[in-house]
């Protein structure tokens, strides 16, 4: 969506819908992660591991190529320099965790050796939890914080 001519109160609802979609993808990713964590025989559940890896890459990609850019755009639209500065400070931590998540994906796309998968899933779960917490902070700072401004700027319907 081209946002150059949008007013903040027009951009916010569109951005909110995109965020809801992305957070739903996170929920599905977590469900698959939990299912995968319960598996005892990974060789019999290779398809589930493939599905999880694809969901993980899709979630990460949507965040990096759409959501984070959208959040930065929203900060600009609302002239929220403080939120932009805070959001930019969070991005390096997200990117560091992204590398760890993608390392998991790359490892299990390139190997049939699943002997360390249980340990790797445990580490991955911790990294995902850290990343989700940072992402939530970024959403709160650069999106949710503007909700009141959007409500105030809405004109009553006649």
Fold blueprint:
Elements (H helix, E strand, L loop, with lengths): L7 H31 L7 H32 L3 H29 L7 H26 L4 H7 L5
CATH homology group: Regulator of RNA polymerase sigma(70) subunit, domain 4
How many individual helices?
5
SSE ordering: HHHHH
Global geometry: elongated
Any overview of this molecule?
There is one protein chain. This protein has helices spanning 8-38, 46-77, 81-109, 117-142, 147-153. With 158 residues, the chain is mainly alpha-helical. The longest helix is centred in the middle third of the chain and has 32 residues, at 46-77.
Task: Give a short summary of the structure.
This protein is mostly helical and 158 residues long.
Main attributes?
single chain; 158 residues; mainly alpha; Four Helix Bundle (Hemerythrin (Met), subunit A)
